[in-house]
Amino acid sequence: MNRVLLTRLMLSSLLSAPLVLTACSGPGRCVGIADATTENQKLLINTDQNGLALQGYDPVAYFTDSRPVKGDPAFRSTSRGAVYQFASAQHKAMFDADPAKYTPEYGGYCAYAASIDAISPTDPNFWEIVDGRLILQHNQKAWDAWHKDAPGNLVKADKNWPGLVERNGTPPHALLNIDKTGLALEGYDPTSYFLDHKPLKGNPALSRQFQGATYYFVDADHKNAFEKEPTKYLPKFGGFCGYAAAINKVSPVNPELWQLVDGHLVLQHTPEAYRLFNQDVPGNYARAEKNWPGLSHRRCD
User: Fold this and answer.
1) pTM for this one?
2) Last residue within a domain, chosen from 137, 168, 199
């Protein structure tokens, strides 16, 4: 059976150019923070493209001040792949002494979303401490839904979270094809390749950040599909060229040159890269899979 499950190309406006594969000096950033405690682990932490958690809010302040307080970049600590900022040196010292006590539950993602087996960002102003655990919610709607049965939803979120990490967790430090603002896929909706069978530009008003990258979506249905299972829709090889990865290189992509291989989105740099990749899809895909961890590691570590 042909391993290419679905291909839609927008080639009519593209010129057949020779394939030039060089280390990416344009789009592309190493996101996340690697340390000895997270090596070879899957992490699911709500951070921005610089690895900053809680949108810069001080996690200790929720416990000591009973309110969200913005941290000061002068006081920073790293824990399990994320950077936290604090309002004072005292708060930083408290965190450093016991990070697990102060880090938010569910990787800083929405607790109500976790209770329904999904992932959603949070608003640091929707928070509470339950049995010594910092719980965050996405918005007022999520807050209200959670509190219709807070004890039951807590049990559900705890039960669902390990599976969410297993399905959606990523390495603590990874190379992603994003621009300076953290935008991935040049603003194309990652779910549109699967749901609409073509690349569609997303709406900046419908954005979601996941593992340091920002994605735009066509509508709420597409955004909700992404939140249910983000890694299902992420492009392979950090969003870089599949053929380049197959020959142990890193190259940018044209988001309109794409295909689905075994249910995974693979992008290509040029029509020639697409042609070469498809001369041996199974072999090139396997080689890219084998090469990518090393390529990401060399660029980021």
Assistant:
1) 0.75
2) 168
